[in-house]
Description:
Number of helices: 11
Largest sheet: 4 strands, antiparallel
Amino acid sequence: xxxxxxxxxxxxxxxxxxxxxxxxxxxxxxxxxxxxxxxxxxxxxxxxxxxxxxxxxxxxxxxxxxxxxxxxxxxxxxxxxxxxxxxxxxxxxxxxxxxxxxxxxxxxxxxxxxxxxxxxxxxxxxxxxxxxxxxxxxxxxxxxxxxxxxxxxxxxxxxxxxxxxxxxxxxxxxxxxxxxxxxxxxxxxxxxxxxxxxxxxxxxxxxxxxxxxxxxxxxxxxxxxxxxxxxxxxxxxxxxxxxxxxxxxxxxxxxxxxxxxxxxxxxxxxxxxxxxxxxxxxxxxxxxxxxxxxxxxxxxxxxxxxxxxxxxxxxxxxxxxxxxxxxxxx
Length: 330
């Protein structure tokens, strides 16, 4: 930390430095100097940088000695008086600044909002008083309402938030949930369309939507992968079945898992038309430019098919969010 008019203060074996911190004015980018004092020091391999929240030299000196005594006692910096809601808002702002995918930010926003709502009812204290016991109370409430897998997924985000608050932002002296170990639940059984259900979907689908359904079902692609499929990913030689090279469909210029994979198109006859014919007869998805086919539009079409034909107990969209493995493909 860059300090102006830096001075040293000895507190026991500690050498604490304090002064005025520099910062960049967001309006014009010029370097400014804070009116209040900041302090920093190192001890036992850890670095402490603490705002003293005063411009009075005498009061700053008093707080420096308090800080030194806490560090020597193993307590570190005094916990910031934040609520769970305050911490959640800061963490969400941090994740937003990291340019996360829209779906990822939506998940973070929902999980943090529900965690804050629980805290308003069950933990109306400063975040510095949050304990591992409070974490497990919240975890049990989520598990009872939504199941173990959902509770595990949400708990990962909450644990990441507390780790960020301690290690990166120095908002807490220690991580209250660092010892809260969890065993990842077994994945849920993945539903898969039957051949009869796929046949009904293809019969009912309009000419524009039929190849979209066929690609998603027979090639095992996710929504984003169907949306971003381009001709240079399609290999259909005349002397063999060919394959699809799936390189896009997730966040950024990659797939959801970050891996490129080859998928056989699994040629099947569906009411007299081979799946492979869709590629040869039509431009990809009726001439839509890559990326212009939106996920929401796909969901609305699938919802229409689901309401009209009631093909399965699970929503149709689920099958194409979680594509089946080769052994399960119909």
